[in-house]
Known about the structure:
This protein is mainly alpha-helical. 75% of the residues lie in helices and 0% in strands.
Amino acid sequence: MGALPANLREEFLGALAFLTRLPVRRLGDSETPEPELAAAAWAFPLVGVVIGIIGGGAYAIAAGMRLPPLAAALIAIGATAIATGGLHEDGLADTADGFGGGATREGKLDIMRDSRTGVYGVLALVFSVALRVVALGQIATGWRVLGALIAAHALARGLLPPVLRFFEPARSDGLGAEAGRPEQGPMLWSLGIALIVTLLASGLRPGLSAVVAGVAVAAAIAWLAQRQIGGYTGDVLGAIEQGGEVVALLAVAGWAS
């Protein structure tokens, strides 16, 4: 880490600490103030690379134990969820519950604040996990699974800064509002890094398919959130990450069939 300038290192570690449950803060400079999340937005796709490597490693271990591809895929998805503390899965479930069960904007936001998971949330999680497992099972080859996971996690997180920049928070408190609005520079770096990583990790044609699908899903969820609750929340950002991750893996799997 010493090769990075101190501010970039701290921003990367700050993004890693926020988006995962990995014990990384002790690697930073204790005398440097923790960076604002918006300033660290450029590093979101790099955090995705770390999570993808964790998932790919788990898949390789499971495959090395001669487990069936679907079982190895489920273990890989479980490993990524453990690494993030289920942060994005929780956001997806809360968003599905709020959008599906609330009759008014305030009602939807109240449901999304509730820590209990309803039917819509459970169904959303089941579909998310199942689609990702099936996609990885289709890809099957260990190094291709690693590339697909790196691409999907980098792309899904790289799409979050544009939402933070171009949409308004739905409420004045919570993780969504506290994240802040990234400047144009960090946002463009996030998109650029996500694009390069996706293409390098999954190949040109699968990568382009994943990028198109990811952008479409992120835009659709952001637009729906604007209609439903007047903007984004931390839960909506989690839903966007999950949607991007799912369609990216499916797009890569389509080229493996």
